[in-house]
């Protein structure tokens, strides 16, 4: 299962670590765009398998940012 960026922006904060259990609607990443903080929420339940971004990275809408197993 993949969590996608919901918009273009910079990764301001990553709220999970590999191995963390994530529930549906948990905020996993916070993006910053035009001085606004935009939460990215999980659409799934699962364990964080991979974090594909780092804080400060720029992402585009629909980029895969986290993988769950």
Automatic annotation (TrEMBL):
Coiled coil: none annotated. It is an enzyme of class 6 (ligase). It holds the Pfam family Biotin_lipoyl. Residues 1-69 form the Lipoyl-binding domain. Gene3D superfamilies: 2.40.50.100. One of its GO terms (molecular function) is acetyl-CoA carboxylase activity. Keywords: Biotin, Ligase. It comes from the Bacteria. InterPro entries: Biotin_Carboxyl_Carrier/Decarb, Biotin_lipoyl, Single_hybrid_motif. NCBIfam families: PRK05889.1. This is Acetyl-CoA carboxylase. It comes from Ureibacillus massiliensis 4400831 = CIP 108448 = CCUG 49529. The lineage of its organism: Bacteria, Bacillati, Bacillota, Bacilli, Bacillales.
